Amino acid sequence: MSVLPTSHPPSEVESAVPNGRAAALLEAGLGLAPTGDAVNAFVAQCRHRAAGLGVSEDAYYDLLAAGGSSARSEWIAMSPALTVGETFLFRDAGLWKLMERRLLQSIAGLTQPVWLWSAGCSTGEEAYTLAIVAQRALGGTPFCVLGTDINPNAVAAARVGVYTPWSLRGVDANRVDELVVSGTQTLRVRDDVKKLVRFEVHNLLDEQAYPPAGMASFECIVCRNVLIYMTPAARAAVIERLAASLAPGGVLVLGHGEAQGIPVEPLIVERHDAGVVYRKPLPAQVSKPPRPERPASVRRIGVRDTDRSRAASFGHRATKAAQSRAAQTAAAVTGLDPCHRLLALAAQQARVGNTETAERKAALASAANPLAPEPYVLLAALYAARDAFTSAEAALRRALFLDPACIPALWQLGILYRLTNRNRQAAVTLARLLARLDGLPAEHVALPFDQLTVQELQTLLRAALEQQRD
Ligand SMILES: C[S@@+](CC[C@H](N)C(=O)[O-])C[C@H]1O[C@@H](n2cnc3c(N)ncnc32)[C@H](O)[C@@H]1O
Fold first, then answer.
1. Upstream peptide bond of 113 is cis (omega within 30 degrees of 0)
2. Average pLDDT over residues 155-177
3. One fold for both 93-299 and 313-468?
4. I want to staple 137 with a disulfide (CB 3.0 to 4.6 A). Which of 31, 71, 100, 109 is the partner?
5. For ligand 1, mutation pick of 83, 116, 224 (most atoms within 8 Å of CB)
């Protein structure tokens, strides 16, 4: 991609006098350093977008300056013309060797699955390289990769995961078959790698866009050749947010010299032959993972008791029906895999009101299969039952990362939004779930922990959505 606009003749661009307002906006929206070319390209884009929207250029600048969701969409729409997307697989071989031999191993024991983020991934080569290297370095340790970029066209291409041999320049020809499936005219990322990587549009400069994909923390963040185009102030803002998104013990990998002159505290600088990386210190004493706290910041105004009791169904006192269901569960758990056996026992404990035991067993279920979404859903329900909404949401984001169509996770997220007074998001999530249920057999079990059928859940959803409209 070029920093020069293609939709306007050069004479017209040259006549656009770079002005202070355009330069300031360009830095605020995308962090880009206001070079002559960049400002010209931006001014031309603004003219083009303003004409498309049927508003004056001044009004368009006002829209960008106002911020909010319209401005956010505009920055994303303009980004393909303003950013540089140059990338390739295994770019900077020395760094990937360091990743494979040292860095990924150093984070392998922090949590399971290990969460990796390629920020500013362009068409996905870096995110897939990260997955390929992590597969080698982490052995059997489960992991997930998030790839993000502001450019929606690049993200769409990344999701396809098909490249030309140009993307493999510099890679040893003998290794190519090991990395990708060769077609006649293209190279395709292997399915086992592809399923470990998810892509989302995300503007690193947009404060509202954090946490990316709702993921509270990552053990490793790679953000290379992105900050190089930004002003020092924008670099500092992005580094601060990336540092905040790192888990303790996690590592931030930037491009060579991209943090030069920028404060990186509280990260610790680690110097390796292949380059400098930044690590978030572990707390002085790490014992077992802390039980999530009841967040003080979440207001509970307007939460109705009916909502609370429905959402917090795992925290209830034992009823006769629950006890009899528990007996049935005990009989049914034999024959399940370890994760689902533990999960069934956790759900059984939750139903009879032993929430602490249930949480412990659900955490064990998650440890038995860290890539299964269901334990996160049960944990979220248990957290929500004790008003630990932030932890509940983090757990649900993980479940939905692992399976974006997970019915129990969507239900729980919709209910969580209602509990925290985010009614619009609740309505959207519940409507999405209703659409997801469309066409499924009525007697099919939709919420396994509660043995709720598709038909029953549809009834609940329609009622919840109607209430929301009222
Ligand atoms: C030169 S590419 C680098 C790709 C990859 N990281 C690599 O090193 O091969 C820079 C990428 O950063 C993205 N980018 C630029 N500004 C961004 C922003 N504010 N938020 C997210 N991505 C951004 C661009 O769209 C582009 O795809």
1. yes
2. 83
3. no
4. 100
5. 83
For the four alpha carbons of 37, 43, 49 and 51, in that order, the dihedral sign comes to: negative
Q: Given a cut of 80, is residue 324 above it in pLDDT?
A: no
According to DSSP, the β-strands at 275-279 and 246-254 are antiparallel
Q: Does pLDDT of 136 surpass 90?
A: yes
Candidates 85, 23, 68, 78; CA nearest to 47 is 78
User: What pLDDT shows up at residue 468?
Assistant: 62
**Right CATH for 93-299 from 3.40.50.150, 3.40.50.1000, 3.40.1080.10, 3.30.310.80:** 3.40.50.150
What is the reported pLDDT for 329? 52
CB under 8 Å to 146, separation ≥6 — which residues?
115, 116, 117, 118, 127, 197, 198, 199, 200, 212, 213, 215, 218, 401
**Residue 363 is encoded by which pair of tokens?**
């955490």
The structure tokens listed for 81 are 């013309």
Confidence of residue 463 (pLDDT cuts 50, 70, 90): confident
Whether the CB of 241 sits within 6 Å of ligand 1 = no
Mean pLDDT of 427-439: 93
Q: Which atom of ligand 1 is nearest to the CA of 79?
A: 25
Annotated domain spans of the chain:
2-82, 93-299, 313-468
* pLDDT per residue as tens digits for the range 186-232: 788 999 999 999 999 999 999 999 999 989 899 999 999 999 999 99
CB 253 within 8 A of CB 270: no
Residue 387 Cα to ligand 1 midpoint, Å, equals 38
Q: Given a cut of 70, is residue 162 above it in pLDDT?
A: yes
Q: What is the pLDDT of residue 367?
A: 93
154 touches ligand 1 (CB under 6 Å): yes
The response to whether residue 84 sits with its C-beta less than 6 Å from ligand 1 reads: yes
Cα(276)–Cα(114) distance, integer angstroms:
22
In CATH terms, the fold of domain 313-468 is 1.25.40
| Separation between Cα atoms, residue 268 and residue 243, nearest integer Å | 11
Task: Determine the atom of ligand 1 nearest the C-alpha atom of 149.
Answer: 22
